[in-house]
């Protein structure tokens, strides 16, 4: 009866299948945005690993442990406070991942709040802080701060632009998931 070829029931022209087997829009939106959201979270974890490696010398110093010699030879620049604050956004990412399995609305809201405060906040602060130094480098092409032969201000801004894009895309997908998961038609208590 569902096939388009072959015999049809009497009185049907074969177009009555259009009303059957449709996925509701909010389920389709949820599935699409869940997979995209996971990709942004995984990429954020990769950036987090890069940041943890960058801050590893600071962690060794905080723990009163001598850093390995290869880290000492790299001469990584001194850590800024916004970098530590940005690392907290990795914990907010865990809330986002945990919310996906059972469409947990509250956990996704906590993810959004965490990414705005601990993700976008430090990135915006760092971009504003480094803006003057970037403009100065752009005009003169001279800097004394180099890392492996590359200007640190350019490397930082590349990292910050990538992080900004990931945070914005992650927030967009989270917003779409929140709209798809919004409780609909709950019964009112008398």
UniProtKB/TrEMBL annotation:
Location(s), subcellular? Endoplasmic reticulum membrane
Origin: domain of life: Eukaryota
GO cellular-component term (any): endoplasmic reticulum membrane
Q: GO biological process annotations for this chain's record?
A: endoplasmic reticulum organization; vesicle-mediated transport
Q: Which InterPro entries match?
A: Jagunal
* Membrane-spanning ranges: 41-61, 81-100, 112-131, 151-178
What are the record keywords, sorted?
A: Endoplasmic reticulum, Membrane, Transmembrane, Transmembrane helix
Q: Where does it primarily localize?
A: endoplasmic reticulum
Q: How does it sit in the membrane?
A: Multi-pass membrane protein
Q: Which Pfam family, any one, appears in the UniProt record?
A: Jagunal
Instruction: Say which family it is in.
Output: Belongs to the jagunal family.
- Sorted alphabetically, which PANTHER family does this protein's record hold? PROTEIN JAGUNAL HOMOLOG 1 (PTHR20955:SF1)
| Name of the protein in question | Protein jagunal
């Amino acid at each position: 009866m569902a096939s388009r070829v072959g015999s049809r029931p009497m009185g049907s022209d074969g177009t009555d299948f259009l009303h059957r087997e449709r996925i509701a829009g909010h389920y389709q939106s949820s599935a699409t945005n869940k997979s995209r959201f996971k990709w942004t979270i995984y990429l954020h974890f990769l950036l987090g690993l890069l940041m943890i490696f960058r801050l590893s010398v600071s962690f060794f110093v905080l723990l009163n442990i001598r850093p390995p010699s290869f880290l000492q030879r790299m001469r990584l620049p001194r850590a800024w406070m916004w970098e530590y604050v940005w690392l907290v956004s990795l914990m907010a990412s865990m809330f986002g991942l945990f919310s996906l399995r059972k469409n947990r609305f509250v956990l996704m809201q906590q993810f959004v709040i965490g990414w705005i405060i601990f993700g976008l906040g430090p990135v915006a602060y760092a971009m504003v802080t480094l803006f003057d130094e970037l403009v100065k480098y752009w005009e003169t092409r001279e800097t004394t701060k180099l890392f492996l032969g590359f200007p640190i201000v350019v490397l930082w801004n590349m990292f910050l632009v990538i992080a900004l894009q990931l945070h914005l895309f992650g927030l967009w997908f989270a917003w779409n998931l929140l709209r798809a998961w919004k409780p609909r038609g709950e019964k009112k208590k008398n």
